[in-house]
Design brief:
Helix content: 40-55%
Number of strands: 0
Oligomer: single chain
Distance between the termini: 35 Å
Radius of gyration: 14 Å
Shape: elongated
Order of helices and strands: H
């Protein structure tokens, strides 16, 4: 998460809700950075 520029709270890290939210943020960061397909 640090490599993606997100803060990480070690105390909350084992909470299912916290993990799900952090995973969603990371997925959105990756998906939004993916290049758009070329018009075809």
């Amino acid at each position: 998460m640090h490599a993606a520029g997100f803060d990480w709270n070690a105390e909350d890290a084992h909470s299912a809700v916290y993990d799900a939210e952090q995973t969603a943020k990371l997925f959105c960061r990756i998906a939004n950075a993916w290049p758009s397909p070329l018009p075809g």
